Amino acid sequence: MVFIVLKNHYPDFYDLLGSIPDHRQRRTYNVAEIIMGGLFMFIFKRGSRNNADKTVTSKFEDNFIKVFGLRLPIMDTVNVFLKALSPAELEKIKQVLVKQLIQKRVLDKYRYKNRYVVAIDGTGVFSFDYEPFAGCPHKTSKNGTKTWLVYVLEAKIVCHNKFSLSLATEWLCNSDNIDQKQDCEQKAFVRLAAKLKKMYPRLPMIIAADSLYPNNTVFDICEKNKWKFILTFKEGALKSVWDEAMSLYPLDKAKNMQKRIKREKGKEGWMEESAMFVNDISYKKHTLNFVEYISGYTDKENHEKRFVHITDMDTNKTTVWDISFHGRLRWKIENEGFNTQKNQGYNLQHKYCRKCFGAMQNYYQLLQIAHLINQLTEKLKKVKQALKQSGRTIKSLWEDMVAAMLKQTITMTEIEQIIENEKQLRY
User: Fold this and answer.
1) Is the pLDDT of residue 154 over 70?
2) Is 373 within 8 Å of 8 (Cβ atoms)?
3) How far apart are the first and last CA of the chain?
4) How far is the CA of 149 from the CAs of 125, 337, 355, 360, in angstroms?
5) 10 in a domain, yes or no?
6) Which of 171, 209, 316, 362 could bond 120 through an S-S bridge, CB–CB 3.0 to 4.6 Å?
């Protein structure tokens, strides 16, 4: 199904890969084959360069050529190319792929108030006991042990169908004149926001982020860029805002509290939900709204969950439910984003290259592109229905695909028949 997704969503995919500048003097494989070789490792969830090479038997490569129309280079060849390639080139490819989905309206039904929910979060990718590249952030333990950490900040479109699609990436890296002050997530967000605005100047966004982000810098950036925000809010984040919200809480609870009871699908018992809001809290030049959501099962004790957000979106008795729901979509970047990439076969924390920072960045971008393609495959209605009916998992889907490429002889007639039957993709 991967080649069907590429054919339907990205008919010019190979031309796009081929547009990447070729810095080589000797060229056994073209650029599209080199990049597709790197993508193959992540699309088929091989987990390492060595395992990717071991997978490619003569039958696998014959089938790969029939299905994708490209040869497969060994991963050492891919690695040499990625070491000299500017990471900006692959991020441009990712940008084009996302923009095409937006232009084709694939993601329209997952918007809120005609805006895309964009989650912001960072994660540690690698750790080293030596400095892998100049400017790598580090920390020193109490016993004096120094550890270098490769950390990345991501902006992803998140959707209620579990899409988590990378928009832009910013790496934490110390400058030459840091004066003992290291790069951090808040500094990286300023750079990431500038990159987002440049890459997607007219994309309407709702920024969803954790409790690190309620601050005046973030509010100013969102206002300047005409973005809205729904940010996780905790006591201590903005003391004056929290104190005012708590002082108004008893008064507003009586008039703004909403409740409902429903049976949650797949769960036993009834879920009781409540949502309330406090509007028009002033903070410097900004006006903020406080939103609280509480849920719990009526037949279970001590199982209550509470979520609090701060937002600049219009909040009333009708919208409070949706605002809280879309604020909670932030978890998709952690669960369907980073957690999936670390534990579901992509092996995000594996050191695909140990010493070249540019290659590290390029492998990361290839992983993001492959994850985008795989999500467009896994979340097809037809695929989800087939998995549900058979009782099988996503993991088994990819294992079967690899097994088919290794054992079966795929014919052009079969490929043409699949193309004919899969002209429209639904999510």
Assistant:
1) yes
2) no
3) 14
4) 8, 20, 13, 13
5) yes
6) 209
Tell whether 301 and 368 lie within a shared domain. no
Identify whether the C-beta of residue 220 lies closer than 8 Å to the C-beta of residue 198. no
Residue 77 lies in a domain: yes
Q: Which residues contact 358 (CB under 8 A, 6 or more apart)?
A: 82, 83, 84, 85, 86, 87
Q: How far apart are CA 66 and CA 419, in angstroms?
A: 13
Cα distances from 50 to residues 53, 315, 398, in angstroms, run: 5, 53, 18
Q: Look up residue 109 and give its DSSP letter.
A: G
Those residues with Cβ within 8 angstroms of residue 31's Cβ, 6 or more apart along the chain or in another chain: 17, 18, 20, 22, 81
Residue 301 pLDDT class (50, 70, 90 cuts): low
Checking if the pLDDT of 266 tops 60, the result is no
- What is the distance of C-alpha 374 from the center of its chain? 12
What is the bridge-based pairing of β-strands 258-263 and 146-158? unpaired
Domain hosting 291: range is 232-320
Structure tokens at 268: 């036993």
Domain tally, the chain: 2
